[in-house]
Design brief:
- This protein is of the alpha/beta class and about 725 residues long.
- Among the domains are: about 45-145, OB fold (Dihydrolipoamide Acetyltransferase, E2P); about 250-280 and about 295-440, P-loop containing nucleotide triphosphate hydrolases (Rossmann fold); about 475-640, 3-Layer(aba) Sandwich (Rossmann fold), CATH 3.40.50.300.
- Helix content is about 40%, strand content about 20%.
- Strands 13-12-11-14-10-15-16-9-17 form a 9-stranded mixed sheet, with helices on both faces.
- It is globular, with a radius of gyration of 32 Å.
- Bound molecules: adenosine-5'-diphosphate and magnesium ion.
- The site of magnesium ion (MG) has 4 residues, from helix 10.
Amino acid sequence: MFLKSPIEQVCPSSQKLQNRLKKMGIKTIGDILFYFPHRYDDFSNLIAISQAKLNQVCSLQVKILEIKTRRTLKKKMFLTEALLGDETGTIKAVWFNQPYLTKVLKTGDFICTAGKIVFGQTGSYLSNPIYEKISVEKPVLDLIHTARLVPVYPETEGLSSRWLRLILEKILEKIKNQLNEFLPLEIIKKYQLLSLPEAIQQIHFPHSLSQAEKAKFRFSFEQLFLLELAILKERLKLNKEKGPLIPLNLDLIRKFVKSLPFLLTDAQKKAAWQILKDLEKPIPCSRLLQGDVGSGKTVVAVIAALNAVRAGWQAAFMSPTEILAKQHFKEVSSFLAPFKIRIGFLTSKEDKIISQKLTHQKEAGKISSEILEISRVKLLAKTRNNEIDILIGTHSLIQDKVKFGKLGLCIVDEQHRFGVEQRAKLLIQNSKIIPHFLSMTATPIPRTLALTIYGNLDLSLIDEMPKGRKKIISRFVNHKERQEIYNFIRQRIKAGEQAFVICPRIETANNKEETENKISSWSEVRAVKAEYEKLSKEIFPDLRIGMLHGKMKVNEKEKIMTAFKNKKIDILVSTSVIEVGIDIPNATIMMIEGSERFGLAQLHQFRGRVGRSDLQSYCLFFTDSPTKTVRARLNALLETNCGFQLAQKDLEIRGPGSFTGLKQWGIPDLAMESLKNLSLVEKTRNAAFQLLNKDPDLKNYPELKKKLQEFEIKMHLE
Ligand code: ADP
Ligand code: MG
């Protein structure tokens, strides 16, 4: 019997059972061995009947003196009653609706029973106790359902913990000696881990709760360790590559910073410094610049790009959508206007190519720039010949025909939208030198997750907002105030401002499961559509209402966003698809329907769509069911304006699964759970780092290497 053997080998069973196992993802003996209990019943208190007390949970080792099943008259229920005895006395046991028991348990049998002693009409008795036969082959010490800590498994229909215990007992006995430890001995010692065979025994049938904890710790450690190894391996591979050496030009940077219409925040300065230091090293850097919406990431990226360009290198700046690319093009061009940088713009959709030439009129203090439309062929040729310094665009930057002459820096906005392969394509421009890589995200991710999801990247954090921003007024709204709020919105729009209305993706449905299974785009569309109809026909017939949802084509979506940006739409009704980085300074109201359905971090993202100018902005959270817990959770939004704190709260309340990106990774459940534990993440990361530094190819650890390969395949990392 081996770990990879099919489960049938140990439990030849009905088709029905097989199907159930399959449904749970259990196919092999190994699968079932690693199906862990979620808690333990403590039946270890083995006592004599005379010691038994009311309401006590205990195990009793007894003889069945009498057992029979009868049917109750009133409720038509099967009642199995037994009289149990030991040297010190007797006690009654009662089971409900298990008539087959009299076939299994006979008068004269020796059993161990476990359960709670309750008091009924006829005195105290054991209610529905668990039982287990004792025999010469099965002495008390070997029991698995009673007289010990008994594992309770997350049960699914038809698979009982009792059944699982029996199977696992069988498997453990046979396979124990085949389980090879794959963790390096020094790590086992250093972190005081149980060995694999010990841990697997103790997680199913622990001697004590502390042993069970230790076993769980070992498996959490092991899973995170593999995860970190997989990620760091990638990282170290890159460290062996050659990157562009871009010296820091301090004068240039000073000049640039002086030219800005604002002062950089300390956080921006620090992040820029970290990136500039990266560029100086001859290995390709990989850095993630994390900063809340509006924290000013673009200008930090521009500092890096300027430094690279002046050193003779090119920079690529990729955005996830056309509209964001245009926004960046405009912003970057205006920042760099005094520096005569040749900036290109390339997107696929419109097939429109703009190249910007800038002239500098210092005396007037004005900057005039010239936007030239040139043909695609010309733009590509210029890019190839290093006549374009910064090329800004969408995914179209990674087409095969786009070749850079001397690409030194790749900047990617909202990187989670780009797959690993896309990133690789952008980086492999020049066979010998791999460009530096800077990725930016406004999605706040708690540190444990960031270290993992983006574990192959160094982190820079902009945790401070530019000064002088007006605080967004956030508040909860109940349905009684709806009319009042609509009046308020009309008033703001008459004053020339704009509003967002966000609807939850999933429509309220009676059948929860159905909704979850078919998170149908239709219900999503309907929720927004209904709201759109209502607002445009009933509430605001005099205003211009637009609609946005995930079922719309990219073209349509961009058209609507552009119209909103150009103030052709007053109120935009949307699902959560609205762009993360989109900048519409004139929008001052964010109204969120059914806010309890969104994660805190996501609600915070919505809030970040407004408050982008010196106008006072408002964020209004509507809730359908302001229960206490919902309120407690949402209150965090009123208490803090910090995306990272909210993300941390989300992690605690909703778990790591609520973070986009993580789900697709297929991280094993145990590792997922452990991601909440910062100290464990750090420990495993250090352990992985030290090991890979010593032995990058794991040559001396063949078992670990094999295990890692399996892990990578499971996680689709390769
Ligand atoms: P994000 O981090 O969300 O991408 P942006 O880079 O788009 O933010 O910056 C948001 C706005 O704030 C832009 O208009 C930008 O010019 C401006 N900005 C950036 N840094 C500062 C600063 N230190 N002080 C004032 N405004 C700033
Ligand atoms: Mg941005």
